Amino acid sequence: MSRNTAKAYIRDIAVRINNPEIYGGASLMAGAGFSRNAESIRSRNAPPDWKGLAESMYEEL
User: Fold this and answer.
1) CA gap 25, 50 in Å, rounded
2) Taking the model in full, what pTM does it have?
3) Is pLDDT above 90 for 8?
4) Interatomic CA distance for residues 40 and 43, integer angstroms
5) Is the CB of residue 48 less than 8 Å from the CB of residue 56?
6) d(CA 45, CA 36)
7) In this predicted structure, what is the pLDDT of residue 24?
């Protein structure tokens, strides 16, 4: 998806969220893995996936 297309989608979502009387209400849900593909600003370490998290917890216990 191009950057312009993404910006157009974001603008459309913003218009709809700001007009609940026309489009209805909205809720945003971000679940596990939401930030998995995000680019880190401060660190090169990616957050662990479920397997990595489970292994880390197992080792700690």
Assistant:
1) 32
2) 0.42
3) yes
4) 6
5) yes
6) 11
7) 87
Model confidence over 12-50: pLDDT tens digits?
Answer: 989 988 998 998 887 777 776 676 677 767 766 767 778
Nearest to 23 by CA among 12, 11, 31: 12
29 vs 22: CA distance, rounded Å: 21
Residue 11 has pLDDT above 90, yes or no: yes
Q: CB–CB of 50/32 below 8 Å?
A: yes
Token pair for residue 57? 């917890």
The string of DSSP letters for the chain reads --HHHHHHHHHHHHHHHT-HHHH--------TTTTTTPPPSS-SPPPP-HHHHHHHHHHH-
Instruction: Compute the chain's Rg from CA coordinates.
Output: 18
